[in-house]
Amino acid sequence: MRWVLLGFVASLLVLFRLHDRLSVRSLRITFFDVGQGDSALVRFPGGKTMLIDSGGGIGDWNLGKRELFLELARMGILTLDQAVLSHPDQDHGLGFLGLFEHLKIREFLYNEAFLKDEKPRLLLQKLLAAAQGAGTKVEGVEGEIRRNEFGVAIRFLTPTIKRIQTNDRSLMVHLEYAGCSFLFTGDIEADGEFWLAQQLRSPITVLKVAHHGSKTSSTQRFLERVRPKISVISNGYYNHYGHPNPDAMRRLRRVRTKILRTDFHGFVTMEVNREGTLRCQTATGSCGELRCH
Largest CB tally within 10 Å, which of 81, 120, 185, 218? Predict the structure, then answer.
């Protein structure tokens, strides 16, 4: 009888979480605390999901095998409608290997240019093999793809300039909803930021700071063009790279953006309602509210 009762309670909890997910009428974005890496979950109005990057790992262990999978399951997410790989570095993509084992992933997107390299990255080859084995649709992006999900305008962008280094070829994601905009920049540096700035017509509400706040990213020209109200840096506590770099932090402060860091604030969640109000929450508490327009 005890086990029956426990099973009933567990089923109710799952149903409540699934109801919470499917009844979403706002855009919710969570920047996970994955140490020295990147991972952000987008939950669209209507319940569909997109995971941009998946954090890293070491050897046979990766965040997708347990930590990230458990966090998604806690949210009632056992299917990802889209998985987006910004670029095939381990700290951005290794976790997908574990997620392919535990979750259903309907579509996997990446920059087609990485597959055309003379020696494609081993991680990308592994991810494409895992996607094929899981029956996941694979979409190689070249240039730009536009979509719309329950009123959220989505742009997937890859630089069209030639002879740029790997970080600058990151697949970027731009979202717009109710006057609010979010920009996910992977690990782009100065050349990638210069190209990206030309593709944007208006300032950005929330910027995922490129390359964990490295010295070679967050250039002054780019920041003055996008003018983010909030900037989120995903980096590990006292990481050996020295991210975020003091010079990059000074440039961010110069444009008077609110800076949130996963090493200090933990996870960062933002919710935008249909009226264009953005509410912000971190593991340490509220990070405020603003009108996007």
Answer: 218
Domain count, the chain: 1
What pLDDT does residue 127 have?
Answer: 96
- At residue 51, what is the residue type? L
> How far apart, in whole angstroms, are the C-alpha atoms of residue 142 and residue 134?
24
Per-residue pLDDT at 7: 53
Q: Does residue 222 lie within any of the structural domains? A: yes
Rg of the chain (C-alpha set): 19
187 CB burial (10 A radius; 0-12, 13-18, 19+)? buried
**H or E segment and range at residue 6:** helix 2-22
| Angstrom distances, CA of residue 257 to CA of 182, 185, 192 | 14, 16, 21
Quote the Cα angle for 293-197-155, to 5°. 70
pLDDT digits (tens, 9 = 90+) for 79-113: 999 999 999 999 999 999 999 999 999 999 999 99
* Residue 58 to residue 77: CA distance in whole angstroms: 25
Is the preceding peptide bond at 244 cis, omega within 30 degrees of 0?
Answer: yes
Question: For residue 258, with 0-12 CB atoms within 10 Å meaning exposed, 13-18 middle and 19 or more buried, which class applies?
Answer: middle
Return the amino acid letter for 105.
I
In angstroms, rounded to a whole number, what is the distance separating the alpha carbons of residues 40 and 43? 10
Domain CATH number, residue 255: 3.60.15.10
Residue 19 included in any domain: no
Assigned domain for 11 exists:
no
The pLDDT of residue 9 is 44
Longest dimension (CA), the chain: 67
With contact defined as beta carbons under 8 Å apart, do 128 and 112 qualify? no
Contact 197, 174 (CB under 8 A): no
10 occurs within a structural domain: no
Nearest Cα residue to 89 out of 33, 167, 159, 32: 167
pLDDT tens for residues 155-173? 999 998 877 888 999 999 9
Domain residues for the domain of 95 are 24-291
